[in-house]
């Protein structure tokens, strides 16, 4: 009689996503996810995909019926004024981070962290270079912190464009 295999644990990805979402919201920041749109099952507006990726604002004010499930993230959001349903499988989410400061985390891919690893076998450890290497891609190692490149300066920052004067006038 062969020994029974240990019970399978669920993937850690959805739990990390929900925890980081709560952490970013609790800090008063806007949570965003970076999505690999080349993965199967991703349903996003194709016109907003750049280089096979899209950044989605998943804040409570930007989404309707947000569901951070065990297999996918789904919600309804406005894109250029039109409501669109969005569905992203958990394995297609590369990272979750705060829009304002970039603090967040790259999520593990399903090939990197098995749902259940035998306890009697050592796990592989990857060497990390002593100096960070510049890259446009976030690291896929969940122990590394990734800060996305700034998309545009915030109002009031040095180098930010000056606001255009309004064409509206006050009527008393």
- Overall geometry comes to elongated
* Structural class category: mainly beta
Order of helices and strands: HEEEEEEE
State the helical fraction. Answer: under 10%
Strand share of the residues? 15-25%
CATH architecture: Roll
The gyration radius over C-alpha positions equals 20 Å
Question: Low-confidence segments, ≥5 residues, pLDDT <50?
Answer: 111-133
Distance between the termini: 89 Å
- Number of extended strands: 7
The major sheet is characterized as: 4 strands, antiparallel
CATH level 4 superfamily = SspB-like
Which key phrases capture this entry?
four-stranded antiparallel β-sheet; 1 helix; 172 residues; mainly beta; 8% helix
Question: How would you describe this protein?
Answer:
The chain is mainly beta. The protein contains one helix and seven strands, in the order H-E-E-E-E-E-E-E. The protein has a single domain (8-115, 138-172), classed as SspB-like (SH3 type barrels, Roll). Helix content is 8%, strand content 24%. It has a four-stranded antiparallel β-sheet with strand order 2-1-6-7. A three-stranded antiparallel β-sheet has the order 3-4-5. It is elongated, with a radius of gyration of 20 Å. The model is unreliable at 111-133 (pLDDT under 50).
